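Please fill in the sequence for the structure shown.

STRUCTURE ENCODING:
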């Protein structure tokens, strides 16, 4: 829930203009709840980017160009 709210707020306002208060308001959670899971907004951003990178990596298909069976 926090990650989804952070993603939406970063998309709407940008990273620099988004605050933890914006994220918790969007998520509908208490500020303390945010800090149970994340140290700061950079931690949230890094987790979002790690997930995004993992999704991209899993979508990449390696093409074998030296396969002798492909003529």
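FILLED IN BY: designer on duty
SEQUENCE:
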């Amino acid at each position: 829930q926090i990650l989804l709210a952070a993603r939406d707020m970063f998309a709407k306002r940008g990273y620099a203009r988004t605050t933890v208060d914006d994220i918790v308001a969007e998520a509908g959670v208490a500020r303390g709840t945010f800090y149970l899971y994340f140290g700061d907004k950079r931690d949230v951003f890094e987790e979002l980017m790690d997930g995004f990178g993992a999704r991209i990596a899993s979508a990449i298909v390696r093409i074998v160009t030296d396969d002798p069976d492909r003529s």
